[in-house]
Amino acid sequence: MSDKLKVGILGATGMVGQRFNTLLDNHPWFEVTTLAASKSSAGKTYEEAVKGRWKMDTPIPEAVKNIVVKDVADVEDIAKEVDFVFSAVNMSKEEIKAIEEAYAKAETPVVSNNSAHRWTPDVPMVIPEINPEHYAVIEDQRKRLGTKKGFIAVKPNCSIQSYTPCLAAWKEFEPTKVVVSTYQAISGAGKTFKEWPEMVGNIIPLISGEEEKSEQEPLKVFGHIENGKIVKAEGPIISAQCIRVPVLNGHTATVSISFNKKPTKEELIDRLNNFKEQPQEFKLPHAPEHFIRYMEEENRPQVTLDVDYEGGMGVSIGRLREDNIFDYKFVGLSHNTLRGAAGGAVESAEMLTKLGYITKK
């Protein structure tokens, strides 16, 4: 019998669920043993369930092709078969909250890609390189849920990944104001160009709900635990615009920033290039060796050249220069379905395993 942790994927047939399957193929710690989706997919093999709608560049992993998809609502049956689950279900926010809590109460840790529980006060929302100390709130969450093993942990929105790491790297200089515009790929909406032809050569200046997430979620990431809840940070003040652009993968951000303690350009670049935290120290399987890199070329980062940096788990920064209104401005790039979605969740599960929050049942 394998010593690997048994993993279930909820919402396995959607784009993020598909990405989870590709990332977990031959994972050294985790083995996908259960796939779950809606009733319409239940009872089919995974290969049958995604026929005609497989969106990844690589083939369906052989290890999951013949797994029979279960109904995601069969919580008790699925919980008996797995040590933990990844959640990428496509439901209403209230339905997601309910089903994720049901799995947690069935003593099954849930590592979620969804936004439903991001503002639940005792649910940690973590970028492993930035705020893994927030996982400590899990003990308070377990008391609320009445569980010994079960809990919910989430990752932040994909749109914040291309600039929030910089704010963490520059924390000592006390960022005070940030104005950011994100230019977001269509895969962030679970689409390809074949499914969304009106995006070819087009820009849509609204992504519903995205700007509030971009302004508020970094503040929870930079917050602290108080009385069993995560209290968001008071600053920096962030103003965001989020725009959908005709790019398949990769979210680009243009950012202007002011500091309480103004650094030199050289100090800022140094902090980016030397930013290493626990995932790197632990050598987690999906942790990038270099989380953030600074690119000296004037025309970088570019999506076609740089989105796959560190297997899509790293963040590329460039064009750092002084600003006429703020102190500095720069451009950031991150892979939205790897670092920003399934990959970030897998790295989070690795960190939770390393810290002892996820164990065999």
TrEMBL record:
It is an enzyme of class 1 (oxidoreductase). This is aspartate-semialdehyde dehydrogenase. Residues 6-138 form the Semialdehyde dehydrogenase NAD-binding domain. InterPro entries: ASADH-related, Asp-semialdehyde_DH_CS, Asp_semi-ald_DH_pep-lack, NAD(P)-bd_dom_sf, Semialdehyde_DH_NAD-bd, Semialdhyde_DH_dimer_dom. Pathway: Amino-acid biosynthesis; L-methionine biosynthesis via de novo pathway; L-homoserine from L-aspartate: step 2/3; Amino-acid biosynthesis; L-threonine biosynthesis; L-threonine from L-aspartate: step 2/5. Gene3D superfamilies: Dihydrodipicolinate Reductase, domain 2, NAD(P)-binding Rossmann-like Domain. The keyword Amino-acid biosynthesis applies. The keyword Transit peptide does not apply. It comes from Catenibacterium faecis. Belongs to the aspartate-semialdehyde dehydrogenase family. Pfam families: Semialdhyde_dh, Semialdhyde_dhC. Keywords: Amino-acid biosynthesis, Methionine biosynthesis, NADP, Oxidoreductase, Threonine biosynthesis. GO terms for molecular function: aspartate-semialdehyde dehydrogenase activity. Its EC number is 1.2.1.11.
